Amino acid sequence: MSLTFRPVANGDIDGVVDLWERCGLLVPHNDPRRDIESARRAPDADVLVADVLGKIVASCMVGYDGHRGWVYYVAVDPGRRRASMGRQVMEAAEAWMKARGVPKAELLIRDTNVQVRDFYAKLGWNEEPRVVMSKTMAGAPAIGLGTVETVVTSLEMLNRPTRPSPHPPSSVRTALIRAEPPTVSFYRYLYNSVGGDWTWVSRRLMDDAELAGHITDPKVEVYVLYVDGAPAGYGEIDRRSDDGNVELAYFGLLPEFIGRGVGRYLLDTMVDIAWTGPTTRLWVHTCDLDHPRAIGTYQKAGFVPFDQYVETLPDPRLAGLPLPQRRPSPSDTVTALGDDTVTPIRR
Description:
- By secondary structure, the protein is an alpha+beta fold.
- It contains 8 helices and 12 strands.
- The protein folds into 2 domains: 6-122, Aminopeptidase, CATH 3.40.630; 147-332, Aminopeptidase (3-Layer(aba) Sandwich).
- It has helices at residues 13-22, 32-41, 83-99, 114-122, 184-195, 208-215, 263-274, 294-300, and strands at residues 6-7, 45-52, 55-64, 69-76, 105-106, 147-157, 174-179, 220-227, 230-238, 245-253, 281-287, 304-314.
- β4 (69-76), α3 and β5 (105-106) form a beta-alpha-beta unit.
- It is elongated, with a radius of gyration of 23 Å.
């Protein structure tokens, strides 16, 4: 496949950050959105992107400091990765350098990253005997060291609801399937897609090994809702307390499926599944970063608030998310909610 590269545009930024995250290029001490904006403002820097059918599939950040050219954020969509696509990214970077008369370019890789080192060597990049030194600038504004405070409301259910068994709407084909267990990449897709608008940040900051340890635990159950064959949402049940207390730890729909009548079915079904076995108490929590009617959703499903407290979250920019817009406090929300609306819980 032949790719065409162009400078990043405003509408590309979310797609670029998502690509970098899926390629494992994001680290806590860098803010990718600030990096993009800095490159766009600089006279001798760019973020080059290529898209296929409107989706960003490749990128690189290039710059010239007047002495050497630099290349960062070389990325190819993992689902489309081919050797030729990586080569095309570097050809675009080199073409950008040559057009500006850059005499020599450099890039940094970890010395243990043998595969990437071999890739660049095949493209004519040479390893040079240099020592890289760095220094953190004292007093400079820290990236990702801010915090976000949110009011958390915990809700519980002490008895299984006595309502009829839930049924999905007849207008769509649905299937609820347990992932036993989900792969890390698929779980990240669900978590990031469902929680992106609600500042779900904690598991974005986990490395793959730590996350795998959570989602592969046999006492953690992840159920995926499919609508007309596509993933539409998921719920996660945590039974690790071993005392009959079960947590509905994560739950929600992808944005495209909100309002299609499947949210209440998913919530009620997850509640029924959670009450199987020796469950004596089911609980969830939500916060003022969720939809302002979130508490009403869970109260209508049978949950009752029992605690409220302030929680401090890591700076969401660490995970490539913007700082959230403050929403009404959960204590101010209504208790009535239509069946078509469902809001995610937990971050």
